[in-house]
Design brief:
Blueprint (H helix, E strand, L loop, with lengths): L1 H115 L1
């Protein structure tokens, strides 16, 4: 009777061991699948973040190019306006000098005529 009980206990222990190992294997397989899914999700998130970073960098470069272009245009316009003002001032000086020269010439003629008379 002892042998039957001991044999039954050994068989029961083996059955429990195999069932337990099978459950552990199933749990390990599930954990591996979940880890694989987590890696795939992380890879997709990383790819999305990289694309967003590239788009943001592209937009920043475009904005910088636009700002530089606007600054150059503004500088060019300011330079042109300054040149126009310088030309106008030059014309004013030229006309004022001509008027002054004409007045000096007129006064010289008057003085010459006054000396003759």
């Amino acid at each position: 009777m002892k042998k039957v009980i001991l044999t039954s206990l050994v068989v029961l222990a083996l059955i429990i061991s195999f069932v337990s190992c099978r459950d552990t294997a199933d749990k390990a397989e599930d954990a591996a699948e979940q880890a694989g899914e987590a890696v795939e999700t992380a890879a997709e998130d990383l790819k999305t973040a990289g694309e967003k970073a590239m788009n943001a960098t592209g937009e920043a470069l475009d904005n910088a190019a636009d700002a530089t272009s606007e600054a150059v245009d503004s500088f060019k316009q300011t330079g042109e306006e300054a040149m126009d003002e310088v030309k106008k001032a030059g014309q004013d000086v030229k006309e004022a000098a001509k008027d002054a020269a004409d007045k000096v010439t007129d006064k010289a003629k008057e003085a010459k005529d006054a000396v003759k008379n």
